[in-house]
């Protein structure tokens, strides 16, 4: 008879397709610790099935596009519309049909560690991707909406091949000769938009980490330029940096 330790080690080698068979075997073992292992394996199987179902759902808009005859579909999202400092960053990602990436989701739902892991996976899995960055000075000049649109256009311009269909998180890009579909909360409904949201978020966070080295007293590594109490206190104490969005801080500048 195998020891519990040996059974645990064996379970780690199993493929998902073999789970149901061994769940039943473990359930019939007289030892409680082994029965508990069957419950853990059962939960893992259920979680895996849920994730597979979710990954099917977040390919819905891509599959809908393929059914309409589109061949090269890109997803677009941005990071940094709300902060009072730093750039706005947009990304576009093109995956091959039926791509599935475990745990990919709206970047806001993921830990920083998971985002960084997926950042590399997405770049490797993507047929193509582009990243567009618009700094705070341009944001002040043309406003954040136009700056976001500009960042998206920059991202698309980096692609080696022009997409014939774009899925965009809750926005239409004017004066762009590509068919588009604006999807509310698209970063949790489309794998392409989810991928773009992660590339944009990680890229922007890395930029803010560099700014934190330049202006350590402002705490950019903590708040990434968003309007936290820590950030506003630093502005009141030290004034504005060259990366602050003056158009977002008129009340403070005028005070």
By CATH, the architecture of the largest domain is named: 2-Layer Sandwich
Backbone CA Rg? 23 Å
Output the CATH homologous superfamily of the largest domain: Ribonuclease H-like superfamily/Ribonuclease H
Strand order of the largest sheet: 3-2-1-4-5
Helical content, roughly?
A: 40-55%
- First-to-last CA distance: 78 Å
As residue ranges, the low-confidence spans are: none
The CATH C-level name of the largest domain is: Alpha Beta
- Report the structural category: alpha/beta
Number of domains: 2
Mean pLDDT: 95
What does this structure look like?
This protein has 255 residues and is α/β, with parallel strands linked by helices. It folds into two domains: 4-57, no CATH class; 60-209, 2-Layer Sandwich (Nucleotidyltransferase, domain 5). Helices cover 51% and strands 12% of the residues. The protein has eleven helices and five strands. It has helices at residues 4-12, 19-27, 32-57, 60-67, 112-125, 136-142, 144-157, 191-214, 220-223, 229-238, 250-254; strands spanning 73-79, 88-94, 128-134, 165-169, 179-183. It has a five-stranded mixed β-sheet with strand order 3-2-1-4-5. A hairpin with an 8-residue loop joins strand 1 (73-79) and strand 2 (88-94).
Walk me through the topology:
Layout (H helix, E strand, L loop, with lengths): L3 H9 L6 H9 L4 H26 L2 H8 L5 E7 L8 E7 L17 H14 L2 E7 L1 H7 L1 H14 L7 E5 L9 E5 L7 H24 L5 H4 L5 H10 L11 H5 L1
Parallel strand pairs: 1-4, 4-5
Antiparallel strand pairs: 1-2, 2-3
Helix pairs in contact: 1-3, 2-3, 5-8, 6-7
